[in-house]
Amino acid sequence: MASSPGVAPAPAEATGWFASRWDRLNGPQRIAGIDLARGLAVIGMIAAHLLWIAEFDFDDASTWVGVVDGRSSILFATLAGVSIGLVTGGRNPLPRAQLRVARGRLVVRAAVLWVIGILLIATGVPVFVILPAYAVLFLLAVPLVALGARALFLLAGGLALVMPFVVVYLDHLPIWLTPGGWLLDNALGWHYPFPVWIAFVVAGIGAARSGILRAEVQLWLLGAGSILAVVGYGLHGVSGAHQPTEAVTFWGAVWTADPHSSGVLEVIGSGGFALAVIGLCLLVCRTILTWVVLPLRAVGAMPLTAYTAQLVVWAIAATVILGNSGDLSGFRDLEPFWPLTIGLVAGCTAWALLIGRGPLEWAMDRLARALVRARIG
């Protein structure tokens, strides 16, 4: 039997314990290219956290690692949308009764993500933890999962063009300066403002609704995403949006592609970049290269576990070595990126092949199924 396009086939002769774990990672129930993209997103975020990164300059190859700054987290958010789209029916939304169950489980997952995110913030590691924002985005996606691909892409485009203006206004509300402002900031994950970032999630759901296993859809994602990236970053470059003085004005805050600005050009450029990476990863995993990138796919098969583990290890190591989990400069000076990344990739690969599903993914799924049961009949 032929395997689904973009899904790594498992050897037919494998049997027993190892075979079941191999099949979980490589069988038709997983989309290898999506796992690869998730793995790249997780490692990109680790790089953005732990490397000293100069501003990206296309003409200077030494700065190219700066591509991870901002874009990795946007790729992560877009892939959240793809996952939501897949668990709610893929190309066609689930029937109403099943969709109601899926929505309930998304709400449970959002709650779990929020709790884990707050606990990670409590470690004192000096990063903007994305999980609280993820939780809010999951909740916002719940009423949208019945929509088809065209409606979702139109909605994503509208949000991308309008919401950066709204967020600049919201950023200047007095509430952020009150004693409880920082609590609200952490609770909402406002470094990733949901009015803008929901556009990435909606685009990801739209990609899933388009039939993401089809080669023509994968090529379309690569092509359309690349065009959007060129438009967004190109307008940023030619319009002078990169000038530091521009950011202090309302228009300057909106008309920019700077990482983590949530400006219109960042949404267009980095959102397009995310779609292009997803399309490219899906196409790569239609080839023999899918086996070369298997360790990265293992990370992407358990993204919540991988993301959480790297922050927990960071907190412990920084506390033991430096006496302070919040010393970002001191921890970066220890050059922890490669040891942590290699350890994470090796650990996720071993876990996937010897044990199976990521522990946090398994626990969250069991909880969601226990709290929201499917009706029989």
UniProtKB/TrEMBL annotation:
The name this protein carries in UniProt is: Heparan-alpha-glucosaminide N-acetyltransferase domain-containing protein
Transmembrane ranges, per UniProt, are 36-54, 74-94, 106-122, 128-147, 152-170, 190-207, 219-236, 273-294, 306-325, 337-356
InterPro entries, alphabetized: DUF418, HGSNAT_cat
The answer to whether the entry has keyword Lyase is: no
Q: Which Pfam families match?
A: DUF418, HGSNAT_cat
Q: Where is the Heparan-alpha-glucosaminide N-acetyltransferase catalytic domain?
A: 30-214
Segments forming domain DUF418:
262-367
**What keywords tag this UniProt record?**
Membrane, Transmembrane, Transmembrane helix
